[in-house]
Design brief:
The complex is a heterodimer. By secondary structure, chain A is mainly α. Chain A folds into 2 domains: 274 residues, no CATH class; 94 residues, Alpha-Beta Plaits, CATH 3.30.70. The radius of gyration of chain A is 28 Å and the shape is elongated. Chain A starts with a helix and ends in a 17-residue tail after the last helix. The radius of gyration of chain B is 18 Å and the shape is globular. By secondary structure, chain B is α/β, with parallel strands linked by helices. The longest helix of chain B has 22 residues. In chain B, helix 1 packs parallel to helix 2, helix 2 crosses helix 3 and helix 8 packs across helix 10. In chain B, the strands form 2 sheets. In chain B, strands 1, 2, 3, 4, 7, 8, 9, 10, 11 and 12 form a 10-stranded mixed sheet that branches. Chain B has a two-stranded antiparallel sheet with strand order 5-6. The termini of chain B are close together. Chain B has a single domain, classed as LarA, N-terminal domain (Rossmann fold), CATH 3.40.50. Chain B contains 10 helices and 12 strands. About 7% of the residues of chain B have low confidence. The chains are: A mainly alpha, B alpha/beta. Chains A and B meet through helix 9, helix 21, strand 8 and helix 23 of A and helix 4, helix 7, helix 8, helix 9 and strand 12 of B.
């Protein structure tokens, strides 16, 4: 009992630290949390597959290994959504005065296998959104970053009005409503279910939970219920958040157990312990083998059907994201630096929003239909309140799934995420006959040069090979002509290339610089 | 003249100038500012470190205490527009800003505030320009210019293009206002210096670009007359400004200019950098608004080489 009490205390401590860690990471405070905020199970597994990252591979292997050894420690100790559910469950216990009770849950094996197969198949087909919607880190992230960070900014800035010593937070571009409602609604449903009956989500829709369960059911030293010492008092069931204990049959389903350690802290008979149950399997096999086979066959048929249907649906939706009309700036979305090729990026990003939360230039926001249906919730650049900061590489460094490749400083400086098109007739130099040059002023690469126009006026000239599409010019351009359109508009690249080296293209002025030779020329 | 002699002389001069100023009261000079009689209209220095040139220059204008009364709140407004290193010449020299802040604190200022409405991310610009570290080491406080809530709308009486603007509260609320720009080439306005530095105290700089840039720059200088303009001409980006790119040439001019006259100080700065005056449209516009004069020959100028 004391062993389990210790483990539970450890679990509460670690899980709260992990939650605080991830909340910091998703509140543009990744500077404190560091790159480790991207370390989560499924995203790391994706990153290992997409970028062949050994670090990510090792990290996901540790989590899978732990599941094979002991069980789903990850779900209780490290999953931010799991911790939130535990908090909701605790609140549910308190506010309902014990009316919300945990009970033995049905196994729901088929449901969760089919969900896992379907979301993976859709992702393989190129549509990763369903996986991103259910993946716990992503579901946590998109809410922490969306409504969570909005609340943080608002609260902080109100307090800043009173206390000078606080640091104000800059405003972000407007986030689209629909993806936010979808993510927010789902989170509320998950937390509501948790308050009512514990970790329902983790053993039904959570792909990470299902995958880890497949390991933990073969674990070497799982938490188990010793049927010889169990007195069927049912105390353990009262605290089991997953409902994986069946007191009547004296079983504990290691596949669904999240290793919260609660049961061990209340069992007075020492029936909860670690280790494999003694082999008494044969007697437990239910019914006649023919019925089992029939059940298995019907499951395989439905799972296979769901998988194929999801794969085809994925292909269909993904095609929509790739073959859009990109002839107009509004329909040429700009992907974050490191995204590479559009089809690849759309099929790899789960939309957790860690990049969005840590965008120094305040340009990233979740897409609605900019990339087509396939890319909903994935990061897209908008230049309403900022530009892609030249020296910032937060998004590419932090991407948990590797949908964004980690760029070196040089690679970032010439990563061509788009190119600008200058519409001369809408430039204030032409329309008003006055000086401007705000675009060239902000251009970090020198892709915009002011050349003589008339009188003393100068007008921008675009050197396209130098343009990296950072949007500094579009952001600052005062030449509005309605609909958010400006004289400078960035068109996102389909496939991110490299801009030319400014030192090779731009010439320093010939001869002596124009400075005066006298000490004081006045 | 060696440096020690010069500083002694300057201090003595400052003392007499200060006393004479007290006795004679303010004479003509730029409206809205007082000027110790006998003090020059413009001080130009070359050849020292930015901090030492400031000490020598301010001594000729009566010392910092002629501007900063004990207990007053001082605003030092440098140009921290870009997330660049001090070597690039894109932002005001951090040593200069730090020295000004320290001298203000020594003169008994209650607080010295420093901010800019930056173009690049403000947190990175503040730290990578070296200004944050210099200001905090000298006892000053850095403030953000990045949120709209800090700006209040004010009328600009006399403004031609820009008749009102949202202005940062620190500019409106301080007792003493030091305008501390860096002299640079500027693709749009041709030169950025003291007058153009006012773009960093208003919230919406796009409006200024939209409504006749040069006139708007001149209008913005009516928001509040700086008690002193201190121009950093130490490292001067003579081309490819204001952010700087592969075509930029940075000249070590090693200069510093001080004047209450914002137009004159800009005209002198342009000459120092070798920029032709004619295309800098905000200079005549400022002259027309009564902000100062481009006729440097009519001013008393002290030229000092350290």
């Amino acid at each position: 009992m004391w062993k389990f009490r210790l483990l539970k205390a450890l679990r509460v401590l670690i899980s709260l630290l992990v939650l605080a860690w991830f909340l910091a990471g998703f509140s543009s405070l990744a500077v404190f949390a560091g790159e480790a905020v991207k370390a989560e199970f499924l995203p790391s597994l994706l990153r290992a597959l997409i970028r062949f990252s050994l670090v990510s591979l090792a990290f996901s292997a540790v989590i899978l290994g732990a599941a094979l050894l002991v069980g789903r420690l990850y779900c209780s100790f490290c999953c931010p959504l799991g911790v939130l559910q535990d908090i909701a469950a605790r609140i549910g216990r308190v506010v309902s005065f014990g009316r919300f009770r945990y009970k033995t849950e049905p196994e729901r094996k088929r449901l969760r296998y089919i969900v896992l197969i379907a979301v993976v198949a859709a992702a393989l087909g190129g549509w990763i959104f369903p996986l991103g919607l259910l993946e716990p880190y992503t579901l946590f992230g998109r809410n922490a970053n969306g409504p969570g960070q909005a609340l943080l900014i608002e609260t902080n800035n109100r307090l800043y009005g009173r206390f000078d010593s606080l640091t104000p937070l800059e405003k972000r571009p407007e986030f689209p409503l629909f993806p936010a409602l979808l993510g927010g609604g789902l989170l509320l449903a998950v937390l509501g279910a948790a308050a009512y009956r514990g970790r329902v989500f983790c053993n039904t829709f959570c792909p990470a939970g299902t995958l880890l369960g497949l390991c933990s059911k073969h674990a070497l030293f799982p938490v188990r219920l010793d049927s010889d010492s169990c007195m069927k008092c049912g105390q353990c069931l009262k605290v089991c958040k997953t409902g994986c204990i069946d007191v009547r049959n004296r079983t504990l389903d290691a596949e669904r157990c999240v290793d919260c350690m609660n049961c061990g802290t209340v069992c007075r008979f020492g029936a909860i312990r670690f280790g494999r149950a003694p082999a008494a399997k044969a007697a437990e096999e239910p019914g006649d083998p023919a019925a089992v086979d029939a059940g298995r066959r019907s499951f395989l048929v439905s799972a296979g059907g769901a998988g194929i249907a999801a794969f085809l649906a994925g292909r269909l939706v993904a095609r929509d994201g790739v073959k859009r009309d990109f002839s107009d700036a509004a329909a040429s979305p700009v992907m974050p630096p490191g995204a590479g090729n559009r089809a690849e990026f759309l099929s790899r990003c789960t939309g957790c929003g860690l990049c969005i939360a840590n965008c120094t230039g305040r340009t990233l926001k979740p897409a609605f239909l900019e990339y087509g249906l396939a890319g909903m919730g994935q990061p897209v650049l908008s230049f309403e309140v900022g530009k892609c900061e030249f020296d910032c590489r937060n998004c590419s460094a932090l991407c948990p799934t590797g949908a964004l490749r980690k760029l070196s400083e040089d690679e970032k400086h010439n990563c061509q995420i788009g190119t600008v098109r200058f519409s001369r007739e809408h430039c204030v130099v032409v329309t008003d006959g006055t000086s401007c040059g705000a675009c060239a002023e902000h251009c970090p690469t020198g892709a915009l040069q002011m050349v003589p126009y008339k009188d003393h006026l100068t007008i921008p000239l675009v050197i396209e090979e130098l343009c990296i599409g950072c949007g500094a010019c579009q952001y600052i351009c005062p030449g509005l002509w309605g609909d958010g359109k400006k004289a400078m508009m960035v068109y996102g690249a389909d496939r991110q290339g490299r801009a030319a080296d400014p030192h090779k293209v731009l010439k320093k002025p010939e001869g002596k610089p124009s400075t005066a030779t006298e000490e004081f020329p006045f | 003249m060696d440096r020690r002699d010069f500083l002694k002389g300057a201090a003595a001069l400052a003392l007499t100038a200060g006393i004479a100023g007290k006795l004679a009261g303010a004479d003509k000079a730029v409206p809205g500012t007082e000027k110790a009689s006998g003090a020059p209209d413009l001080v130009a220095l070359r050849g020292g470190s930015p901090g030492d040139m400031f000490d020598a220059g301010i001594a000729l204008l009566g010392g910092v205490s002629a501007f900063v009364k004990p207990g007053s709140v001082v605003l030092v407004k440098p140009n921290i527009g870009w997330d660049k290193s001090p070597e690039s010449g894109a932002d005001t020299n951090p040593e200069l800003v730090g020295r000004i802040v320290r001298r203000c604190m020594e003169a008994g200022a209650k607080e010295v505030h420093v901010f800019d409405h930056t173009c690049d991310n403000w947190v990175n610009s503040y730290s990578n320009s070296g200004i944050k570290a210099a200001v905090e080491a000298a006892g000053g406080k850095m403030f953000s210019g990045a949120v709209e809530a800090d700006y209040r709308e004010v009328e600009i009486p006399g403004g031609v293009s820009m008749k009102k603007a949202q202005v940062h509260r620190l500019v409106l609320d301080c007792d003493v206002f030091f305008n501390v720009p860096v002299l640079k080439h500027h693709g749009g306005a041709k030169m950025t210096c003291a007058m153009k530095n006012f773009m960093g105290v208003v919230w919406d700089r796009r409006i200024m670009h939209r409504d006749n840039l040069h006139q708007s720059i001149a209008d913005s200088c009516l928001i509040r007359r700086p008690d002193l303009n201190i121009v950093d001409a130490f490292r001067v980006m003579t081309t490819g400004g204001p952010r700087g790119n592969a075509s930029s040439v940075v000249k070590d001019i090693g200069g510093l200019l001080l004047s209450r006259d914002i137009v004159a100080v800009d005209a002198a700065a342009a000459k120092l950098a070798g920029f032709p005056l004619k295309p800098i449209g905000y200079l005549p516009a400022g002259e027309k608004l009564g902000l100062g004069t481009t006729k440097l020959e009519e001013l008393t100028i002290r030229r000092v080489v350290l």
